[in-house]
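Sample 1 of the test manifest.
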Amino acid sequence: MSKRTDIVIIGGGPAGMSAAVNAVARGKSVRLLSSEGNNLGRAELVDNYLGFYKLTGAELMQKFSEHTASLGIIHEKGRAANIMPLGDYFMINFAGEIIEAATVVLAIGVAKARAVPGEEQLLGRGISYCATCDGMLYRGKKAIVWGLAPDAAEETNFLGSIGVDVTMVAKGDRPAELNPSIPFISDTVRAVIGDDSVKAVDLGDNALETDGVFILRNAIAPTTLVPGLETENGFIKVNNRMETNIPGLYAAGDCTGSPLQISKAVGEGLIAAQKAAKYIDTTKS
Amino acid sequence: MSTAIIHPNVSEFDELLSGDKPVLVDFWADWCMPCRMLAPIIDQLGDKYAGKATIAKVNVDEQSGLAARYRVQSIPTVMIFNKGELVDTQVGLRSADVYSRVLDSLI
């Protein structure tokens, strides 16, 4: 049994970092997990965060990161594929590791993922979101990776290495890290075609036959991430204590809804961490 | 690990389906991380429904015939059978109450 972390925070933006700082301040063990990049890092100008004005998003992120680093908080980079609530603890599938946590704070930002035609119907019938989860089922078969996340090339290489006849489809140039023996098509998947299982992907002016499609997005719908999580209009439903409908699971920042602003994210991150800390103290005793 | 969980081969599986209790089958493999996350839920169901429903696990690598028969292309896949008929399929992780609701409706 691995060591259980008090508070695992998913998301390295302002809400996640604020939660991390405040969780450490409450003496809790913390792991801060995040994928590459976030919306703030790309903001041209931030002019409404009190005390820090006329900064770029990247500069403000730098300040936040210095603060978390000063407390010894490490940003662990990777993708959280699933979070399973198990009553009195959680299991998190993160970058090929299962992490156990007493509480979880979701600070996953806003998902811009939009399903393509055929995606929902064929999910689990040839469509997968996780190469390391389902790859083995496609050994000796054809599969397409539709790479919308920075680590898509690595996942594609993994599929190639276990004997999947894999082709990568993504916008832009061939990724340098993609294994040279793996075919690459610079394009976008418009639809996934099939009736009771995947037959092909629609690339606009041509269709590519395949047995499986791995759709690798950075953004993952909250309900896909956590089974049983309640959302409203795509945002995670929370009360003013940042509690979700699942005990021990909190959410903060853009993922809980508008205003999508740094101050709100930072405030919610603080509340989520404090309530999570309190939850641990009350459930332990 | 719950003792209430059974691990059938093909012939045992067919025998189970012909029984009069509902059967929940978790298709899994040991290389599948989400399957490992579902395992505690399946164990809980095994204890909760002991004597009322059969909770089974099928390793898709060891019983590839069963996985192929039900066209399992993503795991975990949980199928619930009643009187030999497939009544529910859940692909991917679900919370425990999703499975309980179906089982309760069949008992």
